[in-house]
Design goal:
The chain is α/β, with parallel strands linked by helices. It has helices spanning about 15-25, 35-45, 55-65, 80-95, 110-115, 130-135, 155-165, and strands spanning about 5-10, 30, 70-75, 100-105, 145-150.
């Protein structure tokens, strides 16, 4: 049965890197909302306000993959319940279980260089400043099945931990 694996976390947490690694390891389709939003900006202009359209496009794409029987990793900030509820709704509609994983980096000393040096692989995507990250709204997710703090750990160790959670060995 196809699963929807929703990754949530602020910029610089390691979420997109983990999403890429996990999608390669488990063979899941990776849906990155940043890619969809930036595609819209690239078509309509750099100051185009995408609002929730990137998430809507992500929900549609993920739904198509789930209905086709493919696991999906949804990579988005998912900072508020409305965004998370959208993923939950498509999982329910596709009759797929949803696994909600929150990615965080509790060390601002680690987040600062991550934000400055990260390569998103998305043409035109603006860097997120530490100030923007700190001012971003974040609602706690009482439905998170698993949380991973990437501070002080290798990205592969974090990916191993998530992979073990997703596919426990008896």
């Amino acid at each position: 049965m196809a699963r929807l694996i929703m990754l949530s976390g602020l910029p610089g947490s390691g979420k997109s890197t983990l999403g890429r690694i996990l999608s390669e390891r488990i063979g899941a389709c990776l849906v990155r909302v940043d890619v969809l939003e930036q595609d819209m900006r690239n078509m309509c202009g750099p100051d185009h306000d995408v609002g929730t359209k990137g998430y809507a496009a992500g929900y549609k794409l993920a739904s198509e993959h789930l209905i086709s029987g493919h696991d999906v990793i949804a990579d988005a900030v998912n900072a508020v319940e409305a965004a998370r509820d959208g993923w939950r709704t498509i999982a329910t509609q596709a009759r797929a279980p949803i696994i909600e994983i929150e990615i965080l980096c509790s060390s601002l000393d680690e987040v600062k260089p991550r934000l400055k040096t990260r390569d998103t692989g998305i043409k035109g995507l603006r860097q997120v400043s530490l100030k923007d990250r700190q001012q971003r709204r974040w609602d706690d997710n009482p439905h998170a099945n698993f949380r991973v703090d990437t501070a002080g750990r290798s990205i592969n160790a974090c990916a191993d931990e998530i992979e073990h959670f997703l596919n426990p060995v008896d």
